[in-house]
Amino acid sequence: MAEVLLASKARAGAAMVRIGEAQAWPQVVSRAGVWRVVPQLSERVTSMEAELPCPEAFPLRRAAIEAFGKSAFRMAKGVEAIRALERCGIRVAAFKGLAAIAILYGSPRRRSLGDADLIISEDQLGAALACLAAAGFERRSGESFAQYVRFVENAPGFAGNRAVALHGPGDSEIDLHWELGSSGLTNPELLDRAVPVVLGGATVPVVHPVDAFLLSAHHTVRDNFSVESSVRDLADLQLLCPLVAAAGGDLELARRAGSAGLLAPVIAVTKILEEFDPREAVCAVAATVRQAATRGQLRAAKGLSEAFRYQLESGSLNRDLLYLVHPQPFRQILTGMWRDRAGYRESRQAVEETLGRDHSLAHRAASLARALGTWRGLRVARGLARAKFGSSL
Fold this sequence. Notes:
Blueprint: H1 2-6, H2 9-21, H3 25-35, H4 38-47, H5 54-87, E1 93-95, H6 97-105, E2 116-119, H7 125-134, H8 145-153, E3 161-167, E4 173-180, H9 187-193, E5 195-199, E6 202-206, H10 209-222, H11 227-245, H12 249-260, H13 263-276, H14 280-291, H15 295-314, H16 321-324, H17 327-339, H18 341-355, H19 361-371, H20 375-389
Parallel strand pairs: 2-4
Antiparallel strand pairs: 1-2, 3-4, 5-6
């Protein structure tokens, strides 16, 4: 599946043959939905001039049409939210999926969108919440906003990222970010560097391509380099490489990654992309960022790329495993529980339910016990935890 989406044409074609021989296209189409890469899979199959067996071709076409409809609606609502904020005099910029569609794909037909991620300055948070509420975007959880913010500050899964999910008409959602925490990038700086792009018939500000690359690399670490999340990020990064490599952008990327403490994740994602498809632009970016790194950063990057390969082979790491191999998560949780035990648990449960991860402590303990079985898994978890919770790499 990853080879079909990311590898060179010859390697992707061979992967398609193996899938066909195993009669595994139904599982592939299903997994593409889980990984949220149905549009990319559909486009790759078409570009390879491959013909799926008749029973399997229909589910892929249907899934692509459904993904396009949902993504187009969410994109339109995201643009509406941006325009509403601008009318209220609030500086804003889109990043992640909305920015990827704007600067890389050109249409939600080619890239799915679950929510619209927006950046604002912290000093405009209150005004932005009021503005978006008037536009129909509000929080669904019942706890006070102050309680939610205390939870976010002490929830290891957020990795220093401060954001709130606001739900609008239909299944539209805005993720409003006022601080990007361990990314090492400040919102005011990202807003200053934002560029105007036409999206959905309107001109909207999106993060600079170099910053989009850094934020996508950081997101892979925040999501533990899980295959379910990282493959879509890697597909975006593969398309970003030519934009970044042009006009000395790779040098700017290396400089900004170094100052933000993101060289290890950036090297890791370029290393993974090189292994799938050593395109000229990918190799150029990879070589430039490697030259800017220390030996320690190169070792850390090797560990992160190994984490992706490990999960590609063995399945996703148990996220609780990271809490056993690094002291920072426990310190955060204990701080949050000490300040407001009931409030912390209420907010945690609300977030877990939203993400579909609401499991009992017994279930999580049993799952964690199974995850302790391999030394390699523990080593991979330790490298991920250092990148996610430790000091600058």
